[in-house]
Design goal:
Two copies of one chain form a homodimer. Chain A is elongated, with a radius of gyration of 22 Å. Chain A has ten helices and twelve strands. In chain A, helix 4 packs across helix 6. Helix content of chain A is about 30%, strand content about 15%. A seven-stranded parallel beta sheet of chain A has the order 8-7-6-9-10-11-12, covered by helices on one side. Chain A has a five-stranded parallel beta sheet with strand order 2-1-3-4-5, covered by helices on one side. The mean pLDDT of chain A is about 95. The longest helix of chain A has 19 residues, at about 280-300. By secondary structure, chain A is an alpha/beta fold. In chain A, strand 6, helix 6 and strand 7 form a beta-alpha-beta unit. Chains A and B meet through helix 4, helix 5 and helix 6 of A and helix 4, helix 5 and helix 6 of B.
C-alpha cells in the first residue's frame, strides 16, 4: 500500500502517520510526479492534478483532497475511473467563520477608522459604531461553514436566514429559503454572505436585480467562490451605492489584478483568499484522514465527506 | 416633580418621556446649571457634576447616571446627603462585548495586515492567521460586561477564567478566581482582558510581575479604566516583548497625549475610549430609567443598578 502526499506535512505529522500505519509506504513529495504510478491513495490540496496525472496514477482508488474546493480536479477523468474522492470540508468551518465574524465586527465597531486615526495620531471620539445585535443576515450556502457562521451570528443576537437549493431547514438558521426565493428576503438582510461552492447553479447566481433589492446599508460578503457574481455587476452596485460595502475573499480572477478597481475603493475590503487560513489546518485534515484510512484498510469503507464528482460538491 | 437631564436626548426620546410622565416637568439642558436648585432627579452622563453643583441641587434625591463610570461624581458630597445614585451598567454590555470580540478576532484573523496589504495593492497570501477556538481568556471583572464577553468567547470555543474580588462564580466563566490568585492563572491565558472599574482595589492592580507572568504571545486588553496599570509598566512589558500586544480603549491620561509612544507602537492598538459607542445608547438608558421612574413616583422604590458611593461601584 502506497500513499502519496503532494504536499509536505510537518515532521511530527509525518511521524504520526507512519506510527499509526507501519504497513503503509508514505511518500511526501511536492511538485514531483514520479510516484503517481504506484500510489494507491493520493492526498492533495486539489490544485495540482491534471487528467494526465490521473491517467498516470493507474492504481489510485481514492483521492483525498485536503481542502474544500474540488473544482480544479479533472472531474471527468476521475469520474470515468470511478475513483473515490473525499474532501475535508468540515475543517474550514472554524477559521472561516471566525474570519467572517472578524470582518463583520470590525466594520460594525469601526476598526478601520480606529486604525486609521491611530496612524494619524488623532484622538477622535466621533466614531459612529453600530452593533450586530438585532440585525439580520442572509447566508447563501448554510452548509458546514455557513451553519457555523450562523451559530456565531446567533450568539450575537443576529437573525439568520439560510438560502440553499432545496430550502430545507439548515442548522443555526432561524429561517431557510430556496435560491428561487432570494429576492423576497434580500430587502430584510443587513448582511448578505455567501460561502457557496462553484457549481453550475451558483455561477453568476447574483444579478443586478439582487443588488438593487438589497438595503443601501447592506454589507455583501463573498467567502465562497468569485464566480458567484460578475465584477461588472458588483462594481456597479458599489459605485451606485446600492449597498454600503463588500468584503471579498474570493474573486473572478485570482490573484486580483494589480490595476483592479477593488483595491482602492473605500467601500471594498480585499482579502486575498485567506479566510480559511489556520495553523491547525493539516492537523485537522489528519484527524479526518487517519480514522478514514483505518477503515479503508479493513474493507475499503467509504471515507467521510465523500464528494460526488458529477454534482461538484 | 422636576427632572433635569444634563444632556439632550433625541426629539422622539424626549416625547417618549413626556408622554409616559405627563405629571413631570422635564428639563433637557446641556452645560447650563440654572435648573439645579429645583431638580428632584438629575439624569447625567456623570462627568459634569461638582460638589458645588450637588450643594446647589438642594432638593435632589436621585442621581441617575446614564453611563457606567461614576468615578467623576463628587462621591463625598453625594454620600453625605444620602442621595440615591443609580447607573446603567447593563446597557454597555452589548457594544463593549462586540468591540472586545471585534479587536480580538481582528488580530487573530490578521485584519490589520489584510487592510495594510490592500492599501499597498499587494496580493499576499502569506498571512499567518490563528484562531480563537481552543484558547484561554482571563477576564478581570466578570460583571455585566465581562460576563457578556465571556458568553461570546465561549461561543467561539474559548475557555474563560473570571477574576473578581471574592472569587465567587460568575456567569459564562468556566472558572473563577479571586484577585489574590491572578498570578497563578496568568501563565495559562492567551488573552488578559480587563473591564474593571476604577476603585481603591483596582488602581495599579497590575504590576511588573503580572506582565512577566503572562505568555509572550498574550494579548492584553484594557477596556475598563486607565489606572489599572501604569504606562511605565505596560510600556516596559511591550518594549521587552513580555507580551505580544495590547489593545487599549482607556488610558492613564485621556485624551492620550499626542506625543505618547503608544500611538506609533506596532504592538499597540489605540482605541479612543469608544468601545461602548452605540446608536442604541440613550434608547437603552431610557428602557431602564422609565420603569424605574414609574416605581419611584409611587413610593420611591430603589432603582435598578443602585450604586454604592462608598464602594465606588
Amino acid at each position: 500500500m502506497e500513499i502519496l502526499f503532494t504536499f509536505i506535512p510537518k515532521e511530527d505529522q509525518q511521524q504520526r502517520l507512519e506510527t499509526e500505519f507501519p504497513q503503509v509506504h508514505f511518500h511526501f513529495i511536492y511538485k514531483d510526479k514520479t510516484r503517481l504510478a504506484s500510489a494507491d491513495i493520493i492526498v492533495t490540496y486539489g490544485e495540482d492534478l491534471t487528467a494526465e496525472d490521473v491517467a498516470a496514477a493507474e492504481k489510485v482508488q481514492w483521492i483525498m483532497v485536503a481542502s474544500a474546493g474540488i473544482e480544479k480536479l479533472p472531474h471527468q477523468a476521475i469520474a470515468e475511473r470511478g475513483i473515490t474522492v473525499s474532501n475535508v470540508k468540515g475543517i474550514h468551518k472554524i477559521p472561516m467563520a471566525e474570519s467572517a465574524l472578524a470582518h463583520l465586527l470590525s466594520l460594525k465597531r469601526s476598526l478601520p477608522t480606529i486604525y486609521e486615526n491611530q496612524r494619524n495620531q488623532e484622538w477622535s471620539r466621533r466614531i459612529r459604531s453600530s452593533e450586530l445585535n438585532g440585525s439580520t443576515a442572509l447566508i447563501l450556502g448554510p452548509g458546514a461553514i455557513g451553519s457555523e457562521i450562523g451559530r456565531m451570528l446567533q450568539a450575537f443576537g443576529v437573525y439568520t436566514i439560510g438560502c440553499n437549493r432545496s430550502g430545507k431547514k439548515a442548522p443555526h438558521m432561524d429561517d431557510t429559503i430556496s435560491f428561487e426565493n432570494i429576492l423576497e428576503k434580500l430587502p430584510q438582510a443587513d448582511y448578505v454572505l455567501s460561502i457557496l461552492p462553484s457549481t453550475d447553479e451558483t455561477k453568476q447566481l447574483l444579478k443586478e436585480v439582487h443588488f438593487k433589492a438589497m438595503k443601501k446599508t447592506a454589507i455583501f460578503m463573498n467567502f465562497g467562490r468569485g464566480d458567484l457574481v460578475s465584477d461588472e455587476i458588483l462594481l456597479d452596485a458599489l459605485r451606485n451605492e446600492e449597498i454600503a460595502c463588500a468584503v471579498l475573499d474570493v474573486f473572478e480572477q485570482e490573484p486580483l489584478p494589480q490595476d483592479h478597481p477593488y483595491w482602492t475603493m473605500g467601500n471594498v475590503v480585499v482579502s486575498p483568499h485567506v479566510s480559511s487560513h489556520s495553523g491547525k489546518y493539516v492537523e485537522r485534515a489528519l484527524d479526518i484522514f487517519i480514522p478514514d484510512l483505518k477503515k479503508w484498510l479493513v474493507d475499503q469503507t467509504v471515507p467521510t465527506n465523500l464528494v460526488n464528482m458529477e454534482k461538484g460538491y
